[in-house]
Amino acid sequence: MTVMAERTSSQMSVDVFERIAEFAEREDETVRFEFIDGRIGVKKVTNGSHGEIAMWLAFRCKEARPDLTLNTTGQGLKVEAYRKGRARPDGVLAPVGYFNGQGEWADPDGVLMAVEVTSYDSDTHHRDRVDKPQAYGEAGIPLYLLIDRDNHSILVHTVPDPEVGYRDIHVVAFGGKVILPDPVGIELDTDELKQYVD
After folding, report:
1. Is 36 a domain residue?
2. Taking a C-beta distance cutoff of 8 angstroms, is the pair 140, 160 a contact?
3. Residue 172, by phi and psi: left (phi above 0), alpha (psi -120 to 50) or beta?
4. pLDDT in tens, 47-59
5. By three-state DSSP, how is residue 30 classified?
6. Which residues pair with 73 in a beta bridge?
7. Predicted confidence (pLDDT) per residue in 184-197, tens digit
8. pLDDT tens for residues 124-147?
9. Torsion over CA: 73, 182, 131, 138 (sign)
10. Per the structure, how many domains does the chain have?
11. Which residues sit opposite 86 in a β-bridge?
């Protein structure tokens, strides 16, 4: 479940958010905090099927591109225009060693792809289909991969644009083959994903 606080006219600074998130996550390990579009999001730790999907993708990426790693540990990214947002993608694809020494909130410049897997909660539509693509596109991340369990499909967002998030979205139903274009350059057979739809 994700809870978004309403944006107010006196927006919280990123520094204040980071201090709140650090304290709160230390006190309760079942939640992760994000700061997108001036709002704090509280993201619950995922269920088993959600985690299996992330691991499926991590293995496929490593098989195809041993020079890359899909980080599924909740690595935070500085997102949105001017890096004013903070997001914790379900997966972040980058060259091996990219996050070494970067800390909790890494710069997205070397990230090739951000990944989200939809959750079965009331905020998944707004968070994963609206806020995240806008934030990742503004940050210039080349690809955003959304594994949409509700609609049994994978959405590949490409051509990042600071105004609209991403200019191109390609949709493939579970069971089809999907190409993650350059700079990722991986083809995925998504048939296995059918078993992870709860």
Report:
1. no
2. yes
3. beta
4. 568 889 999 999 9
5. coil
6. none
7. 999 999 999 999 88
8. 667 788 889 999 999 999 999 999
9. positive
10. 1
11. 35, 78
3-state secondary structure of 122: coil
Which pTM does this prediction carry? 0.80
CATH number of domain containing 101:
3.90.1570.10
Let me know if residue 144 belongs to a domain: yes
**Are residues 112 and 68 in contact, defined by beta-carbon separation less than 8 angstroms?**
yes
> In sequence order, what are the beta bridge partners of 103?
none
From CA 136, how far away is CA 152, in angstroms rounded?
22
Average pLDDT, the chain: 85
Report the amino acid identity of residue 162.
P
pLDDT tens-digit readout, 92-131: 999 999 999 999 999 999 999 999 998 776 666 677 888 8
Q: Which residues pair with 36 in a beta bridge?
A: 39
- The dihedral through the CA atoms of 82, 39, 16, 42 has a sign that is negative
Give the whole-angstrom CA distance, residue 147 versus residue 81: 24
Is the link from the previous residue into 89 a cis peptide, with omega within 30 of 0?
Answer: no
**What is the pairing mode between strands 91-95 and 113-117?**
antiparallel
The boundaries of the domain holding residue 133 are 47-196
The order of strands in the sheet holding 105-106 is 2-4, 39-44, 31-36, 85-87, 76-79, 105-106
Q: Residue 102 has which token pair?
A: 């970067």
Could you tell me the CA-to-CA distances from 76 to 26, 53, 136, 179 in Å, in that order?
15, 19, 12, 26
